[in-house]
Amino acid sequence: MPFQTTTLTLDGEAVSGCLVGLPAEGGRAYTVGIPKGDTHDWCDRKLSFWGRLWRTMGIPETAEPQNIPLSWGQNVAVRLHEGAEGVTVYEGGSFLRHFYTDAELTDLRGSKTDKVGTQPAGDVSVLIYSCTETDGYVPRAGDIILRGECDLIFDTSDERTVSESMRTFREEQPLFAVIKEISAEKNGLKNDLRITAR
């Protein structure tokens, strides 16, 4: 039902009197009207309403309260944010490990059979919200990426131990992928990263 006034939860705090607008992207995105006088920070935030988890997208649109006849002073776009398990990235070459808590990985890989035999087909699509890794590393092409948190540490003391670590890694994490392309999208004050891997 479009244009519903609801109470939502922002970082554990109830915010009442919010107006949820018309759905977009098949009900995966909405615009939320924020009441006049609200002082919460709405950039790069998670919120919940209607029993689902959402994430704000971009910087809220604000107008002069006296120029708006209704009860809402700001609008913020929200997108459905369920199933964010995080991703682990190993730097190509050094195998240093980084974990991003606020990320979604969609594995679209399958296989195709041709004259040469069965070959992998398709990509892994990853979205890292606001690049939330604590040490500030930004993934690059050639890095290894996989769903969830992986605690394996590569032994890089010599070529033999790197090879043994990689064999163990392949056995424990057969669904890893290698990053091919990365693009940054401005979302509020930080960048979201869209990653394609194979």
Give an account of the 3D structure.
This protein has 198 residues and is mainly beta. The chain is 7% helix and 49% strand. The chain is built from one helix and 15 strands. The chain has one helix spanning 159-172; strands at 4-10, 13-20, 29-35, 46-49, 52-62, 72-80, 87-90, 97-100, 103-107, 110-114, 117-121, 124-128, 144-147, 177-187, 190-197. The strands form three sheets. A seven-stranded antiparallel sheet has the order 8-7-13-14-15-12-9, with no helix packed on it. It has a six-stranded antiparallel beta barrel with strand order 1-2-3-6-5-4. The longest helix is centred in the last third of the chain and has 14 residues, at 159-172. 21% of the residues are buried.
